[in-house]
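SUBJECT: A protein chain and its fold
Encoding: whole-number codes for local backbone shapes
Chain under study, with its fold:
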Amino acid sequence: MNTPMKSLITALVLSICLIAGYSFAAGNEKDELKSDKMTFFGSPTSAISSSVAVPQSYNRLLFSGTVAPLLNKDGKTTYERYGNTEKQAIGILEKLKADLKTKGLSLADVTYLRVYVAPDPNKGNTPDYQGWFDAYALFFNTKENPVKTARSTVGVQSLVSPDYLIEIEAEVAYKNNSKS
């Protein structure tokens, strides 16, 4: 058999396998949508999930946009007062973690994050997305917390204070244990 014909047959076989694999995977996702547990979908190699199915038996908790805690009120610069984007994000996620703990929940219950990143004057007035991604990697998709949230990261012109380089909203889902 000539090489172009082998290539065509190989491509055809691979296409059929991919289509069959996709149909099989799609069937599994449909079943998982009917599950009584939260299901995270997406690529195993991605740091985030592409979607999350939350069953009707779960409660939802929504967190308003949260900004970084003050590190040093006498600081002369944004970095001294609140830190860079990564430090601010770590502070916000630590606040979220502590607030969840008071409610008997954890970061493993977070299903979605909406993140606003403002320009950093020390980074050429561009948002420091990598600083945010590095902070996220300390809290999610880790050995301690294997959850990979669904997430949106949006660059914005500014936040409520020029010192704030990042603001994070969170959606949390937790099992409803009441016998209604």
